[in-house]
Amino acid sequence: MPENHLYRKDELAGRINVLIDKARSASVPVVFIQHTSSDPGDEFYPGSSDWQLYHGLARREDDTVIRKTTWDAFHETELPDFLQKQGVEQLVFAGAQTEFCLDTTLRSAYSHGYKCNLVAKDCHSTLDSSVLPASKIIEHHENIWNGRFASLQPMEAIAF
């Protein structure tokens, strides 16, 4: 994740970590999705700084990390099988980037039958684009998602 210019980056990891702790306390599996490219010149090539999962996240060695090569974490990954084997019926989304991987995976989850998804309203982010500031990109996507593909809730309100 290109974290250098990520909107609200200083508070984002802390809020996501609280969500992770809540999930772990309820014995809910925590899954990290890692975008990966096979092109050595790409920013998400294994070993590059943008490929690394953010060091500030409360990741443990026993957490599941699923690598994806497209914006959709369900596309040609082990995520669908993992969720089925775990008996997962609802997904809680957090992370970056709002308008790319998060949006695509959220919509794909809905298409895969996960109809009661939650987005932690204050636990996802993006970068400013050439036409919109990050805050407006987030606001726009939350407006589309809420009541259609997911329910938006502040991190404090999410219970597992």
Explain how this protein is built.
This protein is of the alpha/beta class. The protein has a single domain, classed as 3-Layer(aba) Sandwich (Rossmann fold). Helix content is 32%, strand content 16%. The protein contains four helices and five strands. It has helices at 9-25, 79-86, 98-111, 134-145, and strands at residues 31-35, 64-68, 92-96, 118-125, 151-153. The strands form two sheets. A three-stranded parallel beta sheet has the order 3-4-5. Strands 1-2 form a two-stranded parallel sheet. Helix 3 packs parallel to helix 4 (134-145). It is globular. The two termini are 26 Å apart. The model has no long low-confidence stretch (mean pLDDT 94).
What's the layout of helices and strands?
Blueprint: H1 9-25, E1 31-35, E2 64-68, H2 79-86, E3 92-96, H3 98-111, E4 118-125, H4 134-145, E5 151-153
Parallel strand pairs: 1-2, 3-4, 4-5
